[in-house]
């Protein structure tokens, strides 16, 4: 591994001073909020130069999160698929079970260095809320999580986790009482006291500097993976695959490989019940350029520019926007954006569980599903690296209730798992 400081974080020359990635990103917010964002930007830029901060971050990554997370060669799955060798970057093994802890610890550490008392954030299904509540408990910060009343009812276990960790879960009763309303409520609360509090966003989205900051805190994933895969295979992978909701786990792994033009990068969006239905969240694939939550990017929107309702089987992927750097990487042609349906994701969920003993998050299952397809078009001596963003414990009851295995394993009793894989491969 490189020295501890470069291992903890990787900063690049994009975005520009205005927070723009080409035409995307920037900061479309009221003046008072802009002043607050400018303060955060200044503090962040100073802190990433500070060896004490970088050492503390790197220590927490190692001793608390459990980094570096391993890279694992999924041999049985690769063999069954019959194409490229599939490797997994195991972010599912992090403390709290996903990649989100990487940026939450960074953001909470920044809060502490800036002298803030409280971190606040929105949450949809509760994953970001739990990761931030964890980081707040670790660092002795207060934590307010804004969550739609509808989501609070749906996501009881995560609400309990946040409460046990000491966070204050604020029920948002306006509008549709879901994620978008929670974002609005959290930003309003933030503006009431930007001195004592700081907003900690859940992905590479929002106004500058959040897309940059969250990417930088996630970049440790790519830095580690680049070294690990070369140690294991002797070369860079031919392709990297990651699921894209807001886009933080994808930016985390992509960022280390952007200059390696021979490495093909694939972001996988949720096609839900199909791209020709209204029930998907394939923002780059189907959206148009617009503004949401203070930044410009591709957006699933109606004629008036209002964000459309979106859907995915994986609640971590159902966001109508996408991080601005992804929109930029799409327009310059550096990253390919593909999709996987709910059904393909569930098949990959069972496939990885049965072939490797790894139950992936439904979000990550989208990346695995696309990798299974891609592998079949490649040679056996080629390598695909998948960012396995999280573990599937949170999804097991849902999958067993709504997508029982019998639907996915047509002739399991007679022919065993080979038949199931043959079925997957026909698609
Ligand atoms: C939240 C989440 C995602 C989606 O977020 P990104 O910012 O797109 O990475 C993906 N996987 C898991 C496991 C998640 O919890």
Structure description:
The protein is an alpha/beta fold and 427 residues long. It folds into 2 domains: 21-65 and 100-211, Rossmann fold, CATH 3.40.50.1100; 71-97 and 219-425, Rossmann fold, CATH 3.40.50.1100. It is 45% helix and 17% strand. It contains 18 helices and 14 strands. Helix 5 (100-113) crosses helix 10 (210-218), helix 6 (127-139) runs parallel beside helix 8 (156-164) and helix 10 (210-218) crosses helix 12. The model is unreliable at 1-5 and 411-416 (pLDDT under 50). The structure holds pyridoxal-5'-phosphate.
Any chance you could write out the topology, listing elements then pairs?
Layout: H1 4-8, E1 20-21, E2 24-25, H2 31-47, H3 51-65, E3 71-73, H4 75-81, E4 85-90, H5 100-113, E5 118-123, H6 127-139, E6 142-148, H7 149-154, H8 156-164, E7 168-172, H9 179-192, E8 197-199, H10 210-218, H11 220-233, E9 239-243, H12 248-254, E10 264-272, H13 283-286, E11 288-292, E12 295-299, H14 324-331, E13 335-341, H15 342-356, H16 362-375, E14 383-388, H17 396-402, H18 412-425
Parallel strand pairs: 4-14, 5-6, 5-8, 6-7, 9-10, 9-14, 10-13
Antiparallel strand pairs: 1-2, 3-4, 11-12
Helix pairs in contact: 3-5, 5-6, 5-10, 6-8, 10-12, 11-12, 15-16, 15-18
The structure holds pyridoxal-5'-phosphate.
